[in-house]
Amino acid sequence: MSTPDTTQPDVTFLPLFRHAGREAAALVAAALGPAGRSGLLHRGRCAPAEGFCDWIAEHGESEEVEAVHERWGLTRRQAALAAARNDLGPALTSAVGTGRTAVPSGQDEAHWRATPAGRFRNSFGTAVPPSPEVERRVRERLGEDERAWERAFVLLADGFPGDLPALLDTAQRDTTPSETAARLNAKNEEVAWLVRLAPEAMRPRLLSRLAPWSLSRLAAARNADEIVEALIDTGDREAWAALFGGTHTLASRSEQREADVERAFLRRDDPQINEWLLTGLVRPTGDKGYLLAPAVRLALLEGRPFGPGGVDPLPRTPAVHALIEAGVPHTGRAELLRLCHGSREPGLVAQALRASLVEPDTGEDLLTPYQQLLAGIRLWESGHVEELRELRPGPAARTTDGTVREAFARALAEDAVDPLRAAAEASRARDEHLDEALSVWGLLLPHRIHLYTRSELAAVGRAITEDRSYRVDWDLVRSRLADPAVRHHSKRARERYGLLRAHADCPPDVASALADPVFSTFDLLRLYADRDLALAALTRENLGSGPLGAGAWPVMELAVPRPGWAPAVTPEDVLGHARPVVEGLLAAAPYAAVGAIVDECSGRAEGAVPEAEAGFWLALWSLTRYFAGPLPRLLRTAVRLAGGGAPVDTVPAADFLVGPDRDGEADTVRERLGLTTGPWLHAVRLLAGDFAGTLPELLDVASAGPAPQPDAGPRLRTGPAALLALAPREVVDAVVGGLDEPTRVVLARTTRHEETLRALVRHGGRLVHDALLDAPRVARTTAADDFWEVRELREELVLPALLALDDPWVNARLVRETCADGTAEAAATASAVLAGRPFGPREQPVPVLPGLRADFADWDPDCGAELPRWTCNPHFHTSPEPVLAMQALMYVRQSNYQDPPTSVLGHRESLLAASTIAHAGRFDLLEYVVTHWHVRYPYGQCQEARDLYARAVRGRTAAELDLELSGLD
């Protein structure tokens, strides 16, 4: 049996190898040798096949046995095999003992014997939960003895100095009555794990032993989400607030822990808890606490249930009813009221309308004219006409829309709602309100998409689809997406219109235009509702795109049914079509589903010859590092390879070309395809399509004549780019020029070849340039430094080549996306683009995209707009643009962790920028700098310079600034 050349296995092999038979796994262990076995023992997060560890316990080197013992422990069989040996180290021999019982892992023993008790740390010194074995022992020792649980908790919180066995012994021996003990201030705050292990009825009792301050400290700890239900049951408001954080600032949902804590409170559907969430979660000053999303606060006010089977509406306390009628809290009020124009609570509708029409401290755009009409209709239909009369928008009202004033006046004069309805319908027919709808729907998802469960996202999709206030004109959406400014900038299109993917009526072409380069949750929710659509997308796309195949985990997770989510695909469907097979996909897949596919595709059956199965696993070992096909194809290829076939005659060409054996066949490929463009072009087109043959078959077909264009479009795979990298330099350019745009986009996302990248820049259109700049690259598993390789190619080759095109659109995008790091190089690039200086062979000035100059040229301190990030650069102090010079003056940086940020410009650089501003006549900008001098110098430094600038502002002249500057030269 031959040993594979690869000594370090790909992590994808490890979760597959768990399904190996005992005898076959032992043969694999013998064949791999010390280096191969070490790779399996130290690289993966899951234990190898049991037979592999059995062989190591009986025949492996002492270090290998120690590795198995340290990470996973020894079964009774393995302990017996190890006990029969006399070549193991003393510590290991002592741990194995007589071999009559299983031996726990070294990690288990480290946790069990750690001092002080309960101090669980990993190899990096980071706090971790106790191992499952330690949890089992604690539960077994304490059992159902409530007194023992309570005494163990008190000892742990009081900082018991011994190890965990000693603590449990003391807790079981101690007979001191615990009912009379005072509440204690915990010396050890790592007690949440013991509360989690305790019987559910005991948890509130354990927490009641802590003093209020210690309870709040426990709730603020990062692992407090393990016992959030018990902490809620304490009823301690300070502990509740600590769970949410926001002690020093106004926080909101930003991590998974906060999302889980929110759900735990909301799913209680308790009127008292809901009142506290609305009134006590944010401090009265509004600068500290935790702010729930607007849609969540609206649901609480309307009494909507969050838990399964809750009554609708929920009972609400008098305090909540007072908020509905008298006024919601000021913090986050505007965002909440923007959702209230169609609320089922008339009091909230009246508040939104009053704030929009009457209150002087709210902007007129709180509700749009169309939303004002909808709010009026809602109030009228709910029988609150008198409130509508009080809010009647007369000539002095804040609304400037004459249609709204006229509709309200006619409705009140005629005592009928028809004028309001007619005006709203006319407005809807005149303007689809697409941007308005997206603004409202965006408030339903204010946080990052990964912080929502699939049922929450599905509920948002239903809310968007069933919103009768807005009808989406999909032809209008298509026309927006066809605009070059959006069509050629996929990231901008997703940011502006991506929420439309949640709409149930979103057409497939619109959804495809808005899809993320890496499968996102929204895309998967839409795809997984239709099995055929899902399987086609999984077959076409590539899970290796993005960093470390980031799209793999949700692809499998969303195929598993959950409450409120019933996908049309199964985990078996995903395993059968998704590619490549990456660790994240297998880790999220059900164990039995993976095992069933392994048994089916490998031909393994009862009574199978262990040697044949071992050959299969050794072949698979050599494939998983680079194979880009789905799991069934990977396993069947391993079967053929184990049968004695050479990789070049067995592995599909698209996979072989990115594997370690490619270089050995490179000369053959060049010889067969020659120096002309045609055969290379045919071969690339074949690989971009659905060609599943081997490399010799590919060369035969490509040499025979033109390949038909694939019907379903190119697939995202690395094979075409790997083949083109073997072509002569002069052929590469011609091949790229002969490909269609979709295939060029695939090459842009997969190639690392310098000549191919240059050719893509030369021949690519805006979509290809967009892919080079924006779309995540498909990861290459054979390159350990893939991330750095891509980054260097982007910075050293792609960006300069794009600049050399002297294309105004490309230049503007490069400035906005790559010149935001505050460096001198970024400032020089942006200044050259704004000056129209060419980067390539062009001799004439390059036009500046009007939108780029519009980013900053008309900005003034009173406009309230925020300048783009790329304009914030201290090296703009020499820029002739006054706004950029002002940005250089206001740029601050923190030099150490103790002092606040201060200006990074010296006196002379500051004078240069100030002189530029003054000579341009923009004294409003210079006055802004003077007014905000404390931002530049928090300790009031350089007052002489401030006074100099102030005199220039008052005198409306740059003379004194120039005089001071000349004295420094």
Low-confidence spans: pLDDT under 50, at least 5 residues?
1-7, 781-788
Strand order of the largest sheet: 1-2
Radius of gyration, whole Å: 34 Å
Helical percentage: 55-70%
Helix/sheet category: mainly alpha
- The overall strand count is 4
The average pLDDT is 87
Overall form: globular
Query: In percent, how much strand structure appears in the residues?
Result: under 5%
Question: For the report, how would you describe the main beta sheet?
Answer: 2 strands, parallel
How far do the termini sit from each other? 80 Å
Number of H- or I-type helical stretches: 59
Keywords:
969 residues; mainly alpha; two-stranded antiparallel sheet
Task: Characterise this structure.
The protein contains 59 helices and four strands. It is mainly α and 969 residues long. Helix 9 crosses helix 10 (164-173), helix 43 packs across helix 44 and helix 43 crosses helix 46 (729-738).
Summarize the structure.
This protein is mostly helical and 969 residues long. The chain is 57% helix and 1% strand.
Outline the secondary-structure elements.
Blueprint lengths: L12 H5 L4 H22 L6 H10 L2 H10 L4 H8 L6 H7 L9 H8 L18 H11 L3 H12 L6 H10 L18 H6 L5 H5 L4 H9 L7 H6 L3 H8 L5 E2 L4 H11 L4 H9 L9 E2 L3 H9 L15 H9 L6 H5 L8 H12 L11 H13 L3 H6 L11 H13 L3 H13 L3 H9 L11 H12 L8 H9 L1 H4 L2 H8 L10 H7 L6 H7 L3 H10 L11 H6 L13 H7 L5 H6 L2 H12 L7 H14 L7 H12 L4 H4 L2 H4 L5 H12 L3 H12 L6 H10 L14 H6 L4 H10 L2 H10 L3 H10 L2 H8 L12 H18 L4 H11 L5 H12 L14 H5 L27 H9 L1 E2 L8 E2 L3 H13 L3 H9 L1 H4 L6 H13 L3 H8 L3
Parallel strand pairs: 1-2
Antiparallel strand pairs: 3-4
